[in-house]
Amino acid sequence: EAQVTQNPRYLITVTGKKLTVTCSQNMNHEYMSWYRQDPGLGLRQIYYSMNVEVTDKGDVPEGYKVSRKEKRNFPLILESPSPNQTSLYFCASSPRGQGVNQPQHFGDGTRLSIL
Amino acid sequence: AQSVTQPDIHITVSEGASLELRCNYSYGATPYLFWYVQSPGQGLQLLLKYFSGDTLVQGIKGFEAEFKRSQSSFNLRKPSVHWSDAAEYFCAVGPTNAGKSTFGDGTTLTVKP
User: Fold this and answer.
1) Tell me: the pLDDT tens digits for A43-90?
2) What number of CA atoms fall less than 13 Å from residue A22's CA on the CB side?
3) Would you list which residues of chain B are within 8 Å, Cβ to Cβ, of chain A?
């Protein structure tokens, strides 16, 4: 089954304790992206990757890191989490067809609580 | 910079009534436009997309949207709403060729019996 898999789905942790949220897709998509969703603010793009070893900042990259060493994986790293990073996070991927990024496929989300 | 505005935070309609959700965008070139739906506790699912060509696009679940370049709008419509359509709806621009993707703040749809 074609899917984007995020882990963990839920995490409660404390300020300053490094954490990684994994994202994996099995559709051989070139494009991957991370978003955070906060009430009333829609989805805001954190980082995206157009292909392996190519990453760039979205609109809210502060406090986050990413890497794209393999096509299928795009982990999101919070090196020193703070309470303002408490949010619902989504990973998404899409193929590039005819030079155009196609619709995104989304994971089921990761709810992070930073105390 | 690209942006998306969904003017209606919350809309309530009666089951069987028609629906229109508004979306206005700002983008320098021909936009790639999408509508997604999010049910509670779920990820986002694509309803429909517009890249070019026919300005009236059909999607899943009986939804359609019309691209109007002169009004910078991409409004979502459904002729008869079902109770299962209650969800949050997002309009989005991109990912562009540069990779940026911008979502509106979302519109929550409530369906009255």
Assistant:
1) 999 999 999 999 999 999 999 999 999 999 999 999 999 999 999 999
2) 9
3) 4, 6, 9, 32, 34, 36, 42-46, 49, 51, 90, 92, 94-97, 99-106
How confident is the model over B59-103, as pLDDT tens digits? 999 999 999 999 999 999 999 999 999 999 999 998 887 888 999
Contacts with A43 from chain B: Cβ below 8 Å: 44, 90, 92, 103
Q: How far apart are CA A37 and CA B103, in angstroms?
A: 10
User: How many residues in total does chain B contain?
Assistant: 113
CB atoms within 10 A of CB A20: 14
Tell how strand A110-114 and strand A10-13 pair up: parallel
Q: Which residue do the tokens 């969703």 mark? A: A37
> Which two structure tokens, joined as six digits, stand for A10?
């839920």
Instruction: Round to whole Å and give the CA distance between A1 and A14.
Output: 35
CB contact under 8 A, A103 and B45: no
Beta bridge partners of A113: A12
Nearest to A109 by CA among A84, A88, A81, A93: A88
Cβ <8 Å between A103 and B100: no
Residue B32 Cα, gap to closest chain A Cα (Å): 9
Spatial CA neighbour of A76 closest among A51, A39, A109: A109
